[in-house]
Amino acid sequence: MRSSALLVALTALLVAVQGAKEPATGIAFGDRYSGSKLVGTGVRTKGPIKVYAAGLYVAPMGTKVAMRKYKDSSADSVKSEFYNDLVKSSFGKIIVLKMAMGISKEKLVGALSESVRPRMRSGGDALPKFADLLLTGCERHTPTGKASKGTELAFDMQGSTMSVAVNGKSCGQVKSADLCKALAGCYFDDKSVSTSLKALARRASSQCFDTPREWLTSAANNQSRNLTRDALQGS
User: Fold this and answer.
1) For the chain, what is the mean pLDDT?
2) Distance CA 57, CA 215 (A)
3) 28, 99, 157, 218: which has the fewest C-beta neighbours closer than 10 Å?
4) Alpha helices in 22-125 (DSSP H)
5) Measured distance CA(23)–CA(53) in Å, rounded
6) Facing residues of 158 across strands?
7) Which residues pair with 53 in a beta bridge?
8) pTM of the complete model
9) Rounded CA gap, 223 and 117, in Å?
10) Dist. CA 58–CA 205, nearest whole Å
């Protein structure tokens, strides 16, 4: 009897530690990252290839304040205004990427830069600095110096400041509101590179208003339907 109770307790602990799994890749994301709350996961594909899993973390209180006008909106009624506000609002957002396959650091940084560049309104040195932090971070904080499978990249956006980390190790900051909005736009604007992550954004906001997490079940169903669309788009 005691062994059964112990097994149940250990199982519960493991579930708590594992948090949520991105369904297409099976990659796990913890419930919290630097105090922010996990509200959704998605996958980035190129054709049939799963490149990385992405997780969105938000500051609950900041989300409640910034997105309060959507509190009573249904997920199905969300329009582009919601996603525009999600991208432009300055409340804390963290996008965490976990590589589902290994690629060179140069290829990874090049692909991210290509997605961010057309979404930036101004020039300056923000994007080159962002790219340099990622390249240096992969070189210093990964076993192979590459963006190998399992490598974790985190982009912590607080107001106009983005902090970059590779495998939990800080790489530095870039102060640019334009860069923060552009990176968020990669995942939540009309040309999202991960429609499965974007599909959870409305429920992400709902979860911050309502503490229960029943939305995860219905959101996962929607997410699985979007995986095929992600693969077809391949962008």
Assistant:
1) 80
2) 16
3) 218
4) 60-66, 80-88, 105-116
5) 9
6) 161
7) 43, 98
8) 0.80
9) 27
10) 9
